[in-house]
């Protein structure tokens, strides 16, 4: 995780997006409480900010995702950073597997 001076605002560039991971439930479906060590990192998140778009052949193509979208991404995708003391993830749009509707 990037541990430099914590930025207060992050504006993604080009085809990158800023995502807040969605918290996993603390109980299993059967009602058993899950310890922190047993939980995996969530692979869903809410898009907080998007870049201008992907540059291709001198043209900028807007991204398919927008702020507020709930997205699914790969388990090891992106770069983790801290923004205002909270964990965030910067991904390329191509790392997004789908939008949850």
Layout of helices and strands:
Blueprint: E1 16-21, E2 44-50, E3 54-56, E4 59-61, E5 70-73, E6 79-83, E7 86-92, E8 96-100
Antiparallel strand pairs: 1-2, 1-7, 2-5, 3-4, 5-8, 6-7
Give a quick set of tags describing it.
elongated, 8 strands, 0% helix, mainly beta, 10 Kd Chaperonin, Protein Cpn10, Chain O, single chain, six-stranded antiparallel beta sheet, 101 residues
Multimeric organization? single chain
**Low confidence ranges:** none
Helix content: under 10%
Number of helices: 0
CATH top level label? Mainly Beta
Structural class: mainly beta
| Strand elements, count | 8
> How many structural units, i.e. domains?
1
Order of helix and strand elements from N to C terminus = EEEEEEEE
According to CATH, the homologous superfamily is GroES chaperonin
Based on the structure given, which CATH architecture is correct?
Roll
Strand content: 35-45%
Biggest beta-sheet profile: 6 strands, antiparallel
CATH fold field value: 10 Kd Chaperonin, Protein Cpn10, Chain O
Q: Name the shape in a single word.
A: elongated
Distance N to C terminus: 30 Å
Mean pLDDT: 82
The neighbouring-strand order within the major sheet is 6-7-1-2-5-8
